[in-house]
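Below is one such protein, fold included:
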Amino acid sequence: MLIIHGSRDTIRNIVAKVNASSAEPEIEIACYNAPSSQVVVGGSLAIDRTGSLLNSDPAFSGTRCQQLDVTHGFHSNLTKGMLDDLDQVSASLTYPEPEIFLETCAAEPSSQILAKRPSQHAREAVYFSDAIQRIEKRLDSCVRPESGMDSPIIPMIKRALAKPEDHCLQAVKMLDSQGSMIVTSNVTTNLWRDWI
């Protein structure tokens, strides 16, 4: 998988150019993370060729990319071998009506989870940016503390928001910290200063 810092149109052009000489698509868009950050997925050789294309083709001059250290190419055709098993397990589960608002990272909003949704999520592109912008439109300005620690999610949300300056986004950074009390104090102080 390869993060490419460019618009959706730029990434579509890159995908088309890489796939132009192949009978089957070698890469595809896996994640629409932000207006200027998308992720493509493909076999390791195709990802290497994509990186080389970005470095050599003048049409993509200045387009930055970063290879992700992953074991599998999720959100792509590369998951095909596991989808039937995932559907079988998913069909054995009960999906009650959500009691809280649920926003999926799908192209279109969905108010419920059906048994096919886990395999669709594994196979289809993730529309993270679209989901964040739907939440932003629905809730307006928000306080969003990180619900984990040391993840890339807060910076991803900032890049996906239409108006990041209208939100209080608080990451919880435990790595390289001086202890949980200091981290808790910093988060509390930041929330107090920036929003509350």
Summary: Helices lie at 8-19, 44-56, 80-91, 117-123, 128-139, 153-160, 180-194. Residues 142-196 form one domain.
